[in-house]
Specification:
heterodimer; A: mainly alpha; 0% strand; B: alpha+beta; Four Helix Bundle (Hemerythrin (Met), subunit A); five-stranded antiparallel β-sheet; four-stranded antiparallel β-sheet; 20 helices; 63% helix
Chain lengths: 155, 650
């Protein structure tokens, strides 16, 4: 089992070494909004304004510029609103952190409740230390299905 | 027809008010005659609403362009097929569609509960439903009537948006609406229980089919929406995390959470407050969806702009939310039960964690959707929150959800021990691990795809174990051969196995999304006639170009020869269409689908001398995603097919 974990962790670390591929226009496009069609991502948009932006992306890609440099150019021209994802700074960090904070709070609350209910269950059984050793699950599950089937047959 | 439509929707509104008055009198006087009359008035709402819907459909079919709504969404050249679907193409018609379907649902409830009017809860169920349907008809007759007339008779209408002239439009919006509207029924049951003070222990059982049916419709609507976007919009994707898409996904997540914990309440009679809260939240998020589409507060490719209805829906949501919170708080004592679990590790507890994750995804989707508004209020800077944000935030949450989908079946109801878990986990975990190593060896090195595929194997293995266990149990009980026992046990226990089929569908959807997101290839090349381009294993040759007139559009079509791995396969045809009355041309997608990958071609530009720009994409494994959608719907349907026994329906 320990070896399996070591292999798994190694795989995860190795997987971080992603292959470097040439930057394509579509990779840049999906990070931008069409300046002429507010709210519409550039990779979906097909208007004249979008064509101008695509031409500019192509020009900069041919100069060998990175995605970050190209995006920075558009931000300087149109502001942060031109990006499809808010930059990870200042107040925007709230957007990135809130779901995980929410998840964490939810999990903590759920753990507390489950703990409390399990404790209540234990005390309602008069503190008896029930044997929770069960058969392998599929055996357990087989029994459940068997019971349900028997019930249906009897009905 | 216009007069009939106007009168019918007014009559439907009056009928709903009448129902409310009769029900209130019946409740105050404790007089069953009034309650029965109120019930009948509710059926009257459905009759008048149907007449209004018929009138609008007829106006479209007869090209009555003096009706502003018909003139806005139809024209003479529009094929009759799309004239029918234009009914819900705009805000006003979709509102009438909503009210009409709701009234029919209500009539079904009124009919099925005709022998239960003496029960304390029943009049309150009618009352809540009457109040909701009256709100929709009030909007229709006061601020958003589809029967408003223009001061003149135009020669022709503006026509239907070309992007909506797609077979997907027949089913996508109505199925979504059927899903949204369906959750009104369990909501009404829940609220009726709270108002009457008699917490009906069976309300979940009685509304189970409504819940799952609405969930199925919502699932179909979302999948069809993705399919429509994929084949019609021409950008090569199917889900853009657009605010309106998100608005349909949020109630799906919340209702999925509700369906899971309602099982615990049915089995253990616990989590009553939680389930009441979830059904209220499901209903509210459904209304939030329609508010978002009609308020114009967020920019979306789907919305109707500022329609003047946003404020009404906002008030409605606030009233529903506050009213529900007060009612739940007041009934807290009655709802509260002595919660106890036999063990920390049990399926009940995993269901609770599954709820937390589902709600976290719903919250992150909701928060990301409204973040531009929050940002504007706080910083004065209106941002856009799109695909990269949602992919970044939601992907780890989805993977957690997938993991718990696999863990759940491995943990018994009531209690499990560590040794028990070790044994149960051995096979699925071993298979997933071996699969992960194999995929790594095959070159899948990115973290998320590797984890997603590995977890998909894990979840599939747990589902297969469930099916094998069931078949073995049946074999043991009846002595049938395993091949016969297998389908029989699935059919006999279809509620249970329907759920697992849904889970398997989710796994396929994950495979489809992961493959088509992580390994997608895209290329855009401008070609002269005879020119070639290559993408993945494909070489594409621009062979021919021609133009022709087809019904209400002029079509420019390119023929593209396709060679795969050195072998010529069928030619593909991609088009650019110029519709009458449309400001912009549309691109018609050419698609070569298989379970391994899709080859996706569009022609975004036509240059001089038949020069064309071809946008090609290879979307690996996407077909699995669509197949997964089918599994999810089939599993859901299985779960609500009644057993042979006669049961009282709702």
């Amino acid at each position: 089992m320990r070896n399996m974990w070591i292999i798994l962790c190694s795989l995860i670390l190795l997987s971080q070494a992603a292959t470097v591929q040439a930057l394509t226009r579509s990779e840049v496009e999906k990070n931008l909004i069409c300046y002429a069609c507010p709210g519409e991502p550039l990779n979906i948009d097909r208007c004249g304004g979008g064509d101008q932006m695509r031409a500019e992306i192509d020009r900069r890609l041919s100069l060998g510029q990175s995605k970050e440099t190209i995006l920075e150019f558009f931000v300087q021209q149109f502001g942060d609103g031109i990006l499809t994802a808010p930059p990870q700074k200042g107040f925007n960090l709230v957007a990135y952190a809130a779901p995980f904070v929410g998840l964490l709070i939810g999990l903590v609350v759920a753990v507390i409740f489950v703990w409390k209910w399990a404790a209540a269950g234990k005390s309602s059984r008069g503190g008896r230390n029930e044997d929770v050793e069960a058969a392998a699950l599929y055996k357990d599950m087989e029994k459940q299905v068997e019971d349900e089937l028997k019930k249906l047959e009897n009905d | 027809m216009v007069t009939l439509g106007n009168l019918s929707q007014s009559a439907a509104f009056i009928c709903s008010l009448l129902a409310m008055v009769l029900l209130l009198i019946g409740l105050m006087r404790n007089d069953l005659r009034f309650i029965e009359a109120g019930r009948r008035a509710l059926t009257g709402v459905a009759v008048f609403a149907s007449m209004a819907a018929f009138s609008l459909a007829r106006l479209f079919m007869t090209d009555n362009f003096q009706v502003e709504y018909v003139a806005s969404y139809s024209d003479r050249a529009l094929p009759i097929f799309y004239k029918a679907t234009s009914f819900w193409a705009g805000q006003k018609g979709s509102l009438l569609f909503w009210a009409w379907v709701l009234s029919i649902y209500i009539a079904m409830v009124a009919f099925n509960t005709r022998k239960e009017t003496t029960r304390k809860n029943t009049p309150y169920i009618y009352l809540v439903l009457a109040a909701i349907v009256s709100f929709f008809f009030l909007l229709l007759i006061t601020v958003s009537s589809p029967f408003d007339l223009l001061a003149y008779m135009p020669k022709d209408g503006n026509g239907l948006n070309p992007m909506l002239q797609n077979p997907g439009m027949i089913f996508h919006p109505p199925t979504l609406f059927l899903g949204y509207i369906g959750f009104t029924i369990p909501f009404a049951y829940a609220i009726a229980s709270l108002i009457s003070g008699e917490i009906d222990p069976d309300w979940l059982k009685k509304t189970r089919r409504w819940n799952i049916l609405s969930w199925i419709f919502l699932t179909i609507g979302i999948i069809l929406g993705g399919q429509w976007a994929y084949v019609e919009l021409g950008w090569g994707g199917y889900w853009a995390w657009d605010p309106v898409e998100n608005a349909s996904f949020i109630p799906w997540l919340v209702s999925t959470a509700f369906i899971h914990t309602s099982i615990i309440q049915e089995r253990r009679n616990i989590m009553k407050v939680w389930n009441m809260s979830l059904i209220v939240l499901t209903f509210l998020t459904c209304i939030f969806g329609t508010y978002l589409v009609r308020s114009g507060i967020l920019q979306s490719v789907h919305d109707f702009g500022a329609t003047g209805l946003g404020g009404y829906f906002l008030i409605f949501m606030i009233v529903v939310a506050l009213g529900s919170i007060i009612l739940i708080a007041e009934s807290y004592g009655d709802l509260r039960t002595e919660h106890s679990l036999e063990s920390l590790i049990s399926r009940e507890s995993t269901f609770l964690f599954n709820n937390v994750i589902l709600l976290a995804i719903a919250f992150s989707t909701f928060f990301g959707t409204i973040f531009p508004l929050i940002s504007e209020v706080v910083t004065g800077n209106k941002l856009t929150v799109g695909e990269p944000f949602f992919n970044m935030v939601n992907t780890p949450l989805f993977l957690l959800l997938l993991a718990i989908t696999g863990l759940c079946p491995l943990i018994s109801w009531r209690k499990s021990s560590i040794n028990n878990l070790k044994q149960n986990f051995m096979y699925p975990f071993g298979l997933a691990f071996a699969g992960g190593v194999l995929m790594f060896g095959l070159g899948i090195r990115e973290f998320y795809p590797l984890v997603a595929f590995t977890l998909s194997i894990f979840v599939s293995a747990t589902i297969v174990l469930e099916f094998i266990g069931g078949a073995r149990a049946r074999k043991k009980l009846t002595g049938e051969v395993i091949l016969l026992a297998f389908p029989k046990v699935i059919w006999k226990l279809r509620r249970r196995y329907g759920g697992y089929i849904v889970h398997f569908g989710v796994v396929l959807v994950v495979i489809g999304i992961t493959g088509s997101t992580a390994f997608k290839l895209e290329k855009e090349v401008t070609l002269q006639r005879g020119g070639t381009m290559s993408i993945g294993d494909y070489t594409l040759q621009y062979k021919d170009f021609n133009s022709f007139q087809d019904r209400n559009r002029t079509v420019y079509a390119a023929t593209i020869g396709v060679v795969k791995d050195g072998k010529a396969v069928n030619d593909m045809f991609t088009e650019r269409r110029y519709y009458i009355n449309a400001k912009q041309p549309t691109t018609e997608v050419s698609l070569r689908m298989s379970l391994k990958e899709d080859l996706y071609l569009t022609m975004p530009m036509i240059g001089k001398n038949d020069e064309i720009t071809i946008k090609a994409a290879v979307n690996p494994l996407l077909g699995w995603g669509w197949l997964g959608g089918v599994f999810m719907v089939v599993g859901g349907i299985m779960a609500i097919i009644p057993s042979g026994k006669r049961r009282k329906a709702v």
